[in-house]
Amino acid sequence: MAILRHMARRSSPDFWLLIMTITWVGFGIVMVYSASSAETAFLHEDAMFYTKKQLIAATIGSVLLVLLMNIHFMTWRKLHALLLAGVVVMLLFVLFASGDAYPRSWLYIGSFSVQPAEFAKLAIVLYVAAMMTKKLPHKHPFHRALLPILVVIAVCTALILWQPDLGSAIVFLCCALLVVVVGGIRWKHMIIGGTVAAIGASALVYVLLTSGETNYRVQRFLCYMDPWQDAKGWCWQHVQAEIAFGHGGLFGAGFGQSIQKLFYLPEAQNDFIFAVFGEEFGFIGVVAFIGLFVVFMWRGVIMSLRCPERFGTLTGIGVIGMLTVQTLINIGGVSRTIPLTGVTLPFFSAGGTSLIVCMASMGILLNVSRYASRAAPKQVNPPNKKKTKPTTMRRTE
């Protein structure tokens, strides 16, 4: 068994990944307090209202991180179908049980609320990694290897879009397709899959533009093109975010000195927390943040590639890809590099479900790093080398 075979090779988790994860979580809690304290002190008479929730989520996430860091990653290869089935049930439940009283993206359990789409991101990474390890698409035909995987991805993406949650659907789809591509597929299969994806994307655009939320989505795109054409209406958040970055300047206004968080920037502790960060720490702080995240991403990729098991490599790449895609979409939307989709910033934005899933994902990646060899990283799909028969010298008299 793979678990027993590699148990003797188990070492401590990667130090740098662990330290950077703890740093992100700790600094994220501090930023949630900075971004929300003034508003919650007025609305809830408690400056720590969102910070307390984030601390509770961080505590749960820390327990899961330590637990998953000590569970062999190959365990999830056996449980991938069960995890995905549970997520699909949750996605169906929020669609039909939420009603009109609550948003259909959340599942309410007493005074607690969870977002199943966040769990779906991790579940699809484990599922696709397990299937790509089992099916070996570069050796098996398209209908046996890739088609079942793509059908599952499409169904889950449709369920998330139905909520509707376009941002989570984009992250979900990108994570799944990243693991598929890294897992190794033939060029012919990639062309077929790309054609199907293009048709699906065209149909999706048509559905979004003809749905009841047409005005909402069109206005978001128009705000991306020119937020100042409706600065006091639909584009209020975009304009206030730009003002925040401008006020931050080169060195920032200083920690806790943001002005835009004082009822100018709605939900500053959630999707737009990066704007508050940019205002308080300036351009230098933003560059430092992006640089540290690149190091974090690079370290995760290196540890994944050094894993002796194909499933561990694909899982690690999927986890890092999930965090990277979500970070790029959030920063891109807040800075108006891409249209706004409403995606949280991993480890930073206020949101218990997002933080718990991010920390649980890092627990799995840290376990992968425990079995990573310290040699040079290997290729995910090494080229097949033709075996050559050894030549023998003919003995002459």
Describe the structure.
A hairpin with a 2-residue loop joins strand 1 and strand 2 (112-114). The model is unreliable at 390-397 (pLDDT under 50). This protein starts with a helix and ends in a 27-residue tail after the last helix. With 397 residues, it is mainly alpha-helical. A two-stranded antiparallel sheet has the order 1-2. The protein is built from 13 helices and two strands, in the order H-H-H-H-E-E-H-H-H-H-H-H-H-H-H. 66% of the residues lie in helices and 2% in strands. Helix 4 (75-97) packs antiparallel against helix 5 (116-135) and helix 5 (116-135) runs parallel beside helix 13 (352-370).
* Counted beta strands: 2
Helix content: 55-70%
Gross morphology is globular
> Any idea what the radius of gyration is?
23 Å
Structural class category: mainly alpha
Chain-wise SSE layout:
Elements: H1 2-7, H2 15-43, H3 49-69, H4 75-97, E1 107-109, E2 112-114, H5 116-135, H6 142-161, H7 166-183, H8 187-210, H9 214-225, H10 236-248, H11 273-305, H12 310-334, H13 352-370
Antiparallel strand pairs: 1-2
Outline of the structure:
By secondary structure, this protein is mainly α.
Main features:
single chain; 397 residues; mainly alpha; two-stranded antiparallel sheet; 66% helix; globular; disordered C terminus
